[in-house]
Amino acid sequence: MSSTAPTGFAAEDSRRILHAVFRVGNLDKTVQLYKDAFGMQLLRERDVPEEKYKNVFLGFGPEDKHTALELTYNYDREEYDLGEGFGHFAVASTDIYKLAERIKEKGGQISREPGPVKGGSTHIAFARDPTGYQWELIQREKPSAEPLAQVMLRVGDLDKSIDFYTRVLGMKLIRRRDNEQYKYTLAFLGFKGEETEETVFELTYNWGRDSYKKGDGYAQAAIGTDDVHRSADEIKAAGWELAKEPTELPGIGTKIFALHDPDGYKIVFVDNKDFLKELEG
User: Fold this and answer.
1) Could you say which of 70, 136, 146, 234 is catalytic?
2) Is 136 a catalytic residue?
3) I need a surface site. Which of 54, 251, 266, 276 has the fewest CB within 10 A?
4) Is 220 considered catalytic here?
C-alpha cells in the first residue's frame, strides 16, 4: 500500500491520469494493432488538416472512467526518435501467452517472449508497435479494472522524482523495489494507490545514470483536476514553476496549465468539467 498520502487541495481533488500523448508514424497500422491485438476501443478522432495533424484516442473503456492513449499523427511524418527516457506502456492481462500470440498474428512484434522475470514469479512479455514503442504485457490472476497498467519513464534522481509526484502532484507512492543484481530501482505511483484500479507511473532509476535523451516521440501526460487555479496555486506554493499558467485552449475553452517534472517530462492539468464537455462534443 501507499506510504504517502496527498495533503491540501490535492487530498480532496478528483485527480487521475486522463491520457498519455505520443506521436506515431503509421497511424492506420498502429490503430489496427491496438484494436485487434490489444483489444482497445477507438474512442474518438480529431483531424486538423489546416495544421496537418490528426489525433486518435484509444483505450479500454470510456474516457470518463478510463485512461486513454492520444496518438498524434503528423501528416507525412513516418519516423520519430523515441529517445532513451520513455520506457514503455504496459497492458495487464490474465493470459499474456495468448495475448502475445494474438499480437504476432495481427502483425505486431514480440521483443521478449512471455515468461517469468529473472529472480521472480511474475510473468511478463514485451511487444513493439509499428513506430517502435515498447509494450510490457503483465500477467495478473484477475482482470484489472484498468488494463492500461503503466506509463514507464526513466529518471535521473528517484528520490527527487518521488517527492515531485507525491508532494507536488498529489500522487501516492504505491511501492518501491530495488534490484541489486541489475542495479536499478523501480517506483510505482498513482492517485488511487492501487495498481489494478488505475494507470500508474512506473519510474525507473538505473544506478549511476542521471540523464536521458528525450527524443520527440512521447509528448506528455494529462491529469484531470476539479480546479486548475487551485491546483496551480498549490503547485507553485510547493516551490514548483509552471511551464504554462492557467489558460483556456483556443477554440474549445478547456482550462489547462502545464509543468515539467524533474527530468523534463511534460504534464498538463485539465479541468475535469471542461474535459467531460469535450467528450460530449
Assistant:
1) 136
2) yes
3) 251
4) no
